[in-house]
Design goal:
Strand content of chain A: 35-45%
Order of helices and strands of chain A: EEHEHEEEHEHEHHEEH
Distance between the termini of chain A: 47 Å
Oligomer: homotetramer
Shape of chain A: elongated
Radius of gyration of chain A: 23 Å
Number of domains of chain A: 1
CATH topology of chain A: Urate Oxidase
Helix content of chain A: 10-25%
CATH architecture of chain A: Roll
Structural class of chain A: alpha+beta
Number of helices of chain A: 7
């Protein structure tokens, strides 16, 4: 039996009389196997979780949600910062929208060599590519969450021996002015904690990272500032936000620092009167 | 043995030469038993999760994290939108900061009466109070996440019988121009889905909500627009963001819509060049 | 208009021909404000998340889910290990079941005094009361998750200075042979890490906990064994499971140890051929 | 500079005098890119999260955590139910243990064809392989979590039109007596809800699934029983546990059912006196 599509009403395309455009409408939390292209020669296989949104005109009742998924299914599945704008333009075109945003979140893996033994192992990072299209304008954002060790300068200074330390997350969202490898941004952040993390550490390595962290104490404030200094000096990076969260080993709460920067004078004015945003900085879930 | 505090170095107060102020530094994910004052005569006991942040001057190495907790411990523990600014001023004063933000997230409970039987039961909502102090300026935000039933207009129209429906989250963050009860904002949002939720539904109630949802189909777009229309007509509410997420019963992903509004013309300009933000709309965790 | 309940079919009570009893059927993830009675004189207000289940006979189609919520709504809302069996019997009675289980999970708060300054502050713990009724038999379980500091003995021994440390979760589930205060079980576990946690630590306190943890290094294995030794010597505790998870500060994964004990010889035999269980030990979510 | 490993003390290998064996010690929440071999000809790339544990003898202080990671790093990275026992034996051998457990959790993807249009799209499932080695005995478990639509028989029967429905999770853990494809277990569970899920549904498909679910109403009890019946008749499956959770569209809590089966008479006796377990059924986090 052939079912004629034309005979089934298209409810989404009905007119809407409320005269309110919708800033973002689409789908989220949809997962696909993906391949990521970055500096390293080979593509990396991982799993992407997508959010895909368009602006909806005030006179249309609804968007066509299945088309977002169709774009994903028809896509060859290889993603990079260089090609993400094409994906966003394809979504905008398919949905007939002027404004469009696509985000893809995924675990990303890098080989680490233990600092003394040189033993290699695979460390995981959370990465998000996000691109926003507004007419002809494209804004590309890269977010990486990098786990590091942080060791408390106060604890070290005031104690006769030892110093509390813990795992910390250094997270940066940067707008790209020029191309930037994911690997490079991760490496930049890893370098700013008291010490990097490694999945495998043999005993000489463990001795090394223990002493290195002790020799290199840092508050959340220190890590955030050192990242911001590096970003300010990096021509590839425009506006940015860096946050540092210490999962304190001596408390049951986190220490947190955040710096937003890279803005020109006009942007500073905008910041002062920024629109409502749900900060999401309180760990609520 | 008396330990003399003066003899222990205050590392946080050391000067910093990087000449970078920190936008927000403080603590997060700290929990306390709290009481919430709202419209109802009696206070409500619940558990608050706090984020507390100050701006740090460019010439100081670190903030004094323990003072944030001290403010919480010394506080009588009764919170409301009316008294939250006092808390923020106290934090700013104690930390010696010009700018300060405090967020408190908590489950909030309201009595619901089943629509036919009238049986009462207790429904839970996620609520966040957030106040930002900048010099003499105070911005107060209230966020509520309201679970509702949504029933798909397309599914209803094209099917001979039945219609897919699901639990949805309608979440609004509003800046308060005039006082607004948490209860009122929740009730406003509950009214905009296809049907409200109830912990207890007797059989006549279940018949009622089933038929009511079928009589009142709504896309995520419809719910977002109906909330925005109500906000635009409400003088207590300034700038706002409303999001609707359907945990689709026919897919393994969500449908999503978002409207940001309540801005004057200048704000619109800001929106166009808004600073970097981590949207957090992709379900990343 | 009066709707006559008798006129509405009771689908759940229909007969079922598949001849399969259901081990556990009910509701979960329902939240209510609750009060907890424990050793301290005053009741503690918090928020409980319940799971409530009964066994269903092979010849009945479904249980009556709304009755679980009714029991909660009619309950005075004050819970303790001593009174939890009454709640379970009430659920069993209302649902007409021989077997019944009720779990209540909640954040629980204790006052901590900083070790040197004596400054008090409020620390949060995750606690679960669970009671299983089978005919006339009652099994009462108490679970507490206690955050502590752990400091690595290997890192300390092999390094010239410093030692990596981190926040750890020590979690114990115990079957009660005699009454046991939540406070006592928490205190027992807190004592077995390298150092306890405190929300407020003044500088002399921070010096103290830093040095104490360094003087008291422990692997996950050490903490698990020290808890098991204490449990084996405690007549209030029957069968138990203790787990320790270190959120390693030098890795992006956890170290983990688990001991199950308190069983007599017959139980040991059971353990060898234990039924299928979803361990939930892999951090899956 | 050569650091001589022999000169660095091996703290883990020190003797322990507490005379307590540790049931499970190891690492968890470590992620790696993996390939899964199943029925389909091609391997599937995804991301695995591992838990790896051994039993520790009573006279040894600690296990060697880095060896677990070494086994993963040296592994070719292709996993299947058929080859998982080799991995577990390798872990046991490397750690010198008699008892060993390895779990790997991963998102798994299957192609779905929409029921009328035939459009294909990719649906994600949560899968866990878990193998336990005890001397020469091997127990292999496969867990799949399958999202489906469930439509309430009561709501349909008592209402003049419509019926509430929602996304549900059908989760089964099975012990394998004979080989079983992941694809087959998923397909078996998908078939037991009111309707399957699809990422892409064109309008004729949406009409089909809406009406199919309405024609096929099922309680959590019905789905659990239908799965259990299928398992009881399947010679590949030994002991099992099936759970069904409805994220109710008319409540803010879940309906839940669980059946444990496939046990012989001896096992039944074990079940009656099962050891303490942390059920994890209360949504605690």
């Amino acid at each position: 039996m052939v079912i004629e599509l034309a005979a089934i009403p298209d409810v989404q395309s009905l007119p809407d009389t409320r005269n309110l455009s919708i800033d973002r409408v689409g789908i989220r939390d949809i997962r696909q196997p993906v391949r990521i292209q970055d500096r390293s020669a080979e593509e990396q296989h991982t799993v992407g979780t997508f959010g895909m949104y368009v602006q909806l005109a005030p006179d249309v009742k609804g968007t066509h949600m299945s088309r977002f998924v169709e774009v994903l299914e028809e896509h060859p599945g290889v993603y990079s910062l260089a090609t993400f704008p094409e994906l966003v333009r394809e979504v905008a075109s398919r949905l007939g929208a002027e404004r469009c945003e696509v985000e893809m979140h995924f675990p990303y893996f890098m080989q680490k060599s233990a600092p003394v033994s040189g033993v290699t192992s695979t460390l995981d990072f959370e990465v998000t590519l996000a691109t926003e299209l507004d007419g002809d304008d494209i804004i590309e954002q890269l977010t990486v969450e990098v786990p590091v060790t942080s060791l408390c300068p106060c604890s070290k200074t005031i104690s006769d021996y030892g110093a509390h330390n813990q795992r910390s997350h250094v997270t940066a969202t940067v707008e790209l002015v020029e191309p930037l490898w994911i690997d490079d941004l991760i490496a930049l952040l890893e370098d700013k904690g008291s010490c990097q993390l490694y999945p495998i550490l043999k005993r000489p390595d463990e001795k090394h990272v223990t002493e290195l962290a002790y020799d290199n104490p840092k508050f959340v404030e220190d890590i955030a500032r050192d990242v911001a200094l590096a970003f300010n000096a990096d021509e590839r990076i425009g506006r940015y936000r860096v946050t540092v969260e210490n999962f304190e080993s001596i408390h049951n709460h986190s220490a947190f620092a955040e710096i937003t920067g890279g803005m020109d004078d006009d942007d500073e004015a905008d910041e002062a009167s920024r629109p409502v945003e749900t900060n999401g900085t309180n760990g609520a879930h």
